[in-house]
Amino acid sequence: MAELSEDEFQLLYGRWQPLKPREVGELLDGAPFRWWIGGGWAIEAAGGTPRRHDDTDVVMLLDDLPTVREWLAEFHLWEAHAGALQPLLAEDEPREGRRQLWVRRDADSPWLCDIQLNPVQEGRWLFKRDARISLPLDELGRTFDGIPYLWAPVMLLHKAKTVRAKDQADFDGVIGALSDDDRRWLDDALALAHPGHPWGRSET
Which of 23, 37, 104, 192 shows the greatest Cβ crowding within 10 Å of its Cβ? Predict the structure, then answer.
C-alpha cells in the first residue's frame, strides 16, 4: 500500500477532532486501568514549546486491553497498523501485533484519540522496540493539573525512531527543561535503542 499523507489519510478514513487532555481525563475518570497522555501533549506539559496537535495519543498497557474495551464499549475501536485501519468489533479478538487503536463514537463522528498499547512485564513498562529498556509503572508518568502524562524522556525515546519536523521541534523545545537525571536516562536509552542518534548528549 502506498504511503498516504496525513491529509490523504484523513480524507480516506475520516477527520480528527481530538480530545484535549482534560477531556480524556473526563472520559477515563474512574477507569480501572492505568493511562497516560502521550505525544506532543506530554512534551508540552513537561515544559516544551506549545504547538498544534493533530491528534491525541493515550498510552495504555497491552495487558489491560480487555478492560479498556469494556470501558469504551460505547465507542468504535479501529486497529491502526502499517498505514491502514481495520475495525475491532466487539466479537473480534485483536490481531497479532496490533498495538494502536483509533477511537470514535461512530462512522459519522470524528476520531477522538489514538490509543497506544505498551507491553508490560512483572509491573514494569517495556519499550516496545527494545525490552532492555524498562521502567517501574509508577515511574512511567508525571501528573500535571491532575492529568497523567507520559514522562518526557520516554516520549522522546518513542519519537526518536523517525524524526519528523514536529518531533525535532518537540525535542528542541523541551530538552532544556529536562533535569540532569532525565537527560541521563534518555541518553542511556538512546544508546541502547538508537546508537549514534543525534539526540544523544554525546552526539549534540
Answer: 37
pLDDT value of residue 136? 98
- Percent of the chain whose predicted confidence (pLDDT) is above 90: 84
Q: DSSP 3-state assignment of 140? A: coil
pLDDT: which is higher, 155 or 2: 155
Count other C-beta atoms under 10 Å from residue 65's C-beta.
19
All three cell numbers of 78: 479501529
Q: Give backbone dihedrals phi and psi of 106, rounded to 5 degrees, phi first.
A: -165, 180
Backbone angles phi and psi of 42, in degrees to 5: -65, -40
Q: Which long-range contacts (CB under 8 A, 24 or more apart) does 124-133 make?
A: 125/61, 125/154, 127/154, 127/157, 127/189, 127/193, 128/99, 129/161, 129/193, 130/192, 130/193, 132/192, 133/157, 133/189, 133/192, 133/193
DSSP one-letter code for 138: G
- Name the percent of the chain lying above pLDDT 70: 96
| Complete edge-to-edge strand list for the sheet that includes strand 84-87 | 84-87, 76-81, 100-104, 111-118, 57-61, 36-37, 147-150, 141-144
* 24 pLDDT higher than 80: yes
Torsion angles phi and psi, residue 143, rounded to 5: -105, 130
The residues facing 126 across adjacent strands are 134
For the full predicted model, state whether its pTM sits above 0.90: yes
What letter represents residue 69's amino acid?
R
C-alpha cell at 125: 513498562
